[in-house]
Design a protein that fits this description.
CATH class of the largest domain: Alpha Beta
Mean pLDDT: 96
CATH architecture of the largest domain: 3-Layer(bba) Sandwich
Low-confidence stretches: none
Structural class: alpha/beta
CATH topology of the largest domain: FAD/NAD(P)-binding domain
Bound molecules: flavin-adenine dinucleotide
Largest sheet: 5 strands, parallel
Number of helices: 9
Strand content: 25-35%
Strand order of the largest sheet: 3-2-1-7-19
Radius of gyration: 23 Å
Number of domains: 3
């Protein structure tokens, strides 16, 4: 091993950036390089929707100025796309044919929004939403658009719908099935969200989708065609049907991928000295006791830190163990999903009022995730139960009481 370790990180999102920060703390003498193909250093991806809504200026969204890296003697390469990794030579190559050597490499390249496989899906005025630059384009267009269409009934689609609402665009929100985020919400819970959307001037359209887009002579989108052949005026379109993980850089490396990069709980891939962290991982979840995925800010940050500690230790020093949460603040009522709300073999739920509802996902009698609408107070109790892997079978009534008192739960069974 060399005296000075070289750490290279691909991606300056929250996973890559938090890894760089941890590496510097844990290995003060090491060489650290962060490479990103974006033109700006880490910013708060969670807040770019507020900018696109027209509710927040640019400044508070930026997290790190370039000075932040210089002060920590971290080399930052902006506008640099990594094209190839050579695991035998321990080198990576960039689009400008630069080569970097690494002792340990972290791949934290996140994902790219999936395009709709329909005619004209790349027309002017059709937006995907991932970067700050996307948010600037969306804000600029949304301010002058009148009619809109949004596709993708998940956590990112609803941001685009809320942007239409905030920017006074008269929009349809086309969804497959009969409700928003049908994998995590029942009809009763989703109805609260649908009412919230309608109040913002966004119309949910169920059992629908998009078959094509109509464009004018300048190639600008003018209408959205639904499967029933109807044309709906839309000079602004938002598409959020999923993420394609940025794994092409791993081609030929032997790193195992399976709709994401497969890592263990230490963020190690199957190839020596290559780690991965953030949205793109299919990580071993020590709570689920299975591989899982998680697209959320807090989880990506934690994975970056855990990866960095294990890279410095050159071993399995810290395992990733985390209950994620993801909140939505577009409506008059709060919304929070935590853990793995779309998984599980049993689900329990209750509605408390027109804007209060709760659903818990259980696996083998243990809570693994859930969705809270209206009242988020029980979140810490539920997260504690997830972390403790507590068997709560048969105790639905206590879990669904408006105020959750963990002391009312039966004591955990002692191992024999
Ligand atoms: C609009 C929006 C709203 C969101 N809201 C929430 C929320 O409310 N709560 C929440 O928890 N999460 C939210 N998320 C999700 C959250 O932002 C992500 O989970 C998190 O940012 C993932 O971080 P990451 O570092 O894994 O990946 P990313 O942030 O995607 O970073 C990866 C970086 O790698 C770069 N890159 C990719 N390939 C290469 C390459 N070959 N060479 C060089 N660079 C490369 C990319 O350009 C990118 O900068 C939201 C996301 C979006 C887009």
């Amino acid at each position: 091993m060399h005296m000075t370790q070289s750490y290279v990180i691909i991606g300056d999102g929250i996973a890559g950036s938090s890894a760089a920060e941890t590496l510097r703390e844990e290995a003060p003498e090491s060489d650290i390089t962060v490479i990103t193909d974006e033109g700006e250093a880490l910013y708060n991806r969670i807040l770019i929707k507020e900018f696109a809504k027209g509710k927040l200026p640019e400044a508070p969204i930026s997290i790190h100025e370039e000075d932040w890296y210089a002060e920590r003697e971290i080399d930052l390469a902006l506008n640099t796309h990594v094209t190839e990794i050579d695991p035998d030579a321990h080198t990576i190559h960039t689009h400008e044919s630069d080569t970097y050597e690494y002792d340990k490499l972290l791949v934290a390249t996140g994902g790219t929004p999936t395009q709709l496989p329909v005619d004209n899906s790349d027309a002017d005025g059709i937006h995907h939403f991932w970067t700050f630059q996307d948010a600037r384009n969306i804000a600029e267009h949304a301010e002058r658009a009148d009619t809109g269409a949004v596709v993708g009934a998940g956590l990112l689609g609803i941001d685009l719908a809320a942007i239409c609402g905030a920017q006074d665009i008269d929009a349809n929100y086309f969804m497959r099935g009969n409700r928003w985020w049908r994998y995590a919400l029942s009809e009763e819970g989703a109805e609260i969200i649908h009412d919230g959307l309608r109040e913002k001037g966004v119309t949910p359209v169920f059992d629908s989708g998009v078959d094509a887009f109509v464009t004018d002579d300048d190639g600008k989108v003018t209408a959205t065609v639904t499967p029933d052949g109807e044309e709906h005026d839309s000079d602004f379109v938002g598409v959020a049907i999923g993420l394609d993980f940025n794994v092409e850089v791993l081609q030929g490396t032997g790193v195992e991928t399976d709709d994401g990069v497969v890592v263990d709980e230490y963020m190690q891939t199957n190839v020596d000295d290559i780690y991965a962290a953030g949205d793109l991982t299919r990580f071993y979840d020590t709570i689920l006791n299975d591989h899982g995925q998680n697209g959320s800010w807090g989880s990506a940050k934690e994975q970056g830190q855990v990866a960095a500690k294990n890279m410095v230790a050159d071993g399995e020093s810290e395992a990733f163990r985390w209950v994620s949460s993801y909140s939505i603040t577009h409506f008059d009522f709060p919304f929070l999903s935590f853990g793995h709300p779309t998984l599980g073999d049993n689900h329990i739920e209750r509605k408390y009022s027109d804007t209060e509802w709760r659903r818990l996902a259980l696996k083998d009698g243990k809570i693994i995730g859930g969705v809270l609408i209206g009242d988020l107070a029980p979140q810490s109790a539920f997260k504690q139960l997830v972390r403790e892997e507590r068997d709560v079978s048969g105790q639905t009534d206590v879990l669904l009481e408006e105020e959750v008192d963990l002391e009312e739960l039966e004591a955990p069974q002692k191992e024999q």
